[in-house]
Amino acid sequence: MSGADVSRLTVARQWAADHLDTLGERVKFDAVLVVGELLENAFLHGGGPHQLRIHHHVNSHEVIVAVADRGIGEPLQRVPDRRGGRGLLLVDAVGAEWGVRRHDDGKLIWGRLDCDTAEL
Q1: Residue 44 resides in a domain
Q2: Is 85 helix (H, G, I), strand (E, B) or coil?
Q3: Nearest Cα residue to 41 out of 94, 4, 92
Q4: 102-112 core/surface letters (b: 16 or more CB in 10 A; e: else)
Q5: Which CATH number characterizes residue 17's domain?
Q6: Between 73 and 28, the higher pLDDT residue
Q7: Within-domain flag for 65
Q8: Among candidate residues 34, 49, 50, the one with its CA nearest the CA of residue 86
Q9: 76-119 pLDDT tens trace
Q10: pTM over 0.85
């Protein structure tokens, strides 16, 4: 993986799993998957992540994962091939929605996952 420090991805995934330990296994697994995919994309295409955010409020029935990077490229879903292209497809498949917000020094890519009340 060009430019990515795999040990940092592992630490971030573990931090996310610990942070979301009150959730049901399905949504926690999906949230950790989204964390990994968004961080890996930031390493590969955005010059590296500079912030990871996870918002989970029990009453909101949702988890929002966001990764900020300094890249200028536009994240797009693409047709997978041997080199990749599955990250945003996975985020789209497990999440309710995802998007991009531009800011002065890069972008924030986010994914929202819905939680069933039984998973809170």
Answers
A1: yes
A2: coil
A3: 4
A4: eeeebbbbbbb
A5: 3.30.565.10
A6: 28
A7: yes
A8: 34
A9: 787 777 777 788 999 999 999 999 999 888 999 999 999 875 55
A10: yes
Cβ–Cβ < 8 Å for 40, 87: yes
> For the ranges 8-17, 24-33, 51-60, 79-88, which has the lowest average pLDDT?
79-88
1 in any annotated domain: no
Which uninterrupted H or E stretch holds 94?
Answer: helix 87-94
Identify whether 33 is part of a domain.
yes
Q: How many domains does the chain have?
A: 1
Range of the domain at 83: 6-119
Listing DSSP states for 37-84 in one string gives HHHHHHHHHSSSEEEEEEEEEGGGTEEEEEEEE---SPP-----BTTB
Is the per-residue pLDDT at 3 higher than 50? Answer: no
